[in-house]
Amino acid sequence: MLKVAKRQFRHPICWPARAATATLGAPPSGQAVLPWPFLLRGGKPYQADIRDFARRIVVGFTLDSHQVAQVREALLSTDSDRLIELVSCISLGWPPPESALLALPLTEELGWTKPGQPAFTDTGMLAADSIREYRLWLDRDRKLHGEDHSPLLRPESYAGLEVLEPGSGFGCNLLSLQATALRAVGIEPVAIYEQFTEILATREGLNPPEIIVADAESMPVGDASFDVVLCYSAHQYMDVRRAFVEFSRVLRPGGQLQLIGGTRDDRSPMRIGNFRQLRSDWLTTINTVAYERFGRRLLTPKGLSRTTAPVYPRLRYIDVWLKAAGLHTRQDLRRRIGTDTLTVAEKK
Ligand SMILES: C[S@@+](CC[C@H](N)C(=O)[O-])C[C@H]1O[C@@H](n2cnc3c(N)ncnc32)[C@H](O)[C@@H]1O
Questions:
Q1: Which of 55, 94, 235, 335 could anchor a disulfide with 342, C-beta 3.0 to 4.6 Å?
Q2: Which residues contact 12 (CB under 8 A, 6 or more apart)?
Q3: What is the pLDDT of residues 152-184, one digit of tens each?
Q4: Nearest-CA residue for atom 11 of ligand 1
Q5: What domains lie within the chain, and their CATH numbers?
């Protein structure tokens, strides 16, 4: 986690600006405050809540308690659909409908969009990740991704089981699992996503799932403590080999890893598109080959999210790494799920 914080605070120019964004607003009464005269908003000094400030240094980029209250109010209000629609459309690059554009003043007030334009600020970009995941989850009728493709991914298959989801984001899969799994816990390194978990679960009338802010490569959970590790569209952002060793460690004997994501076997290396897309495809291909051969990415663009340098290793590498981690791939259970592949591996 400190590594994450360090990465986000690396640039001296960005630091004051980001620190300012993270500490805006009057702290709720009764909380300890510290004057930070060098933090300016619109040219005026303001006070920062020391607890929020300390939390930010420990866990990385987060909203302060005032911002969380604002977001909660906005997402639980009766016209929150408009806000969700606008943020999702901007994030997915879709033209927002007229009605959604009415939420623009609100996104600006929340500090998510730049003045007068539907373009995200840093905070907005991170907020949009959770809101987009939530909106897509609503679009698929609150189902687990892929449950129509493999019986293993249907809710009833998790009945009575303890499930761990590394790379859970704000936790949409955990919400889907709540009805059947005995316990469903997320691991997510981006602390701001976890701040949306309780709000979005409340919006759904569900209990907020437990999400531990940590990296999948070093999860603070006990050995042999879960029946299933479900990793959906997340291993490509991890140090895959180290993550597999961790997945194996936390699985009980007889437990199952369900790994869903893209692979270079079936991804077209270059999409037809604009320069940015081509550049990103090149980068991904170079990183994937480097990771397959040398176990590391060569190029890691900076960003506040943890999804800037994906790798899509071929299945034969995945199987070798799983075996080395003590997990046996069930070739008979391998399935295509849209553009992804489901790999199931068992711990002996
Ligand atoms: C595309 S999202 C998938 C979220 C969720 N699994 C779903 O299916 O909607 C990938 C997630 O993996 C997380 N992630 C990236 N690197 C990670 C790491 N090293 N350990 C754990 N999670 C990571 C990202 O922060 C992000 O939330």
A1: 335
A2: none
A3: 999 999 999 999 999 999 999 999 999 999 999
A4: 167
A5: 2-62 (no CATH), 69-139 (no CATH), 151-267+312-347 (3.40.50.150)
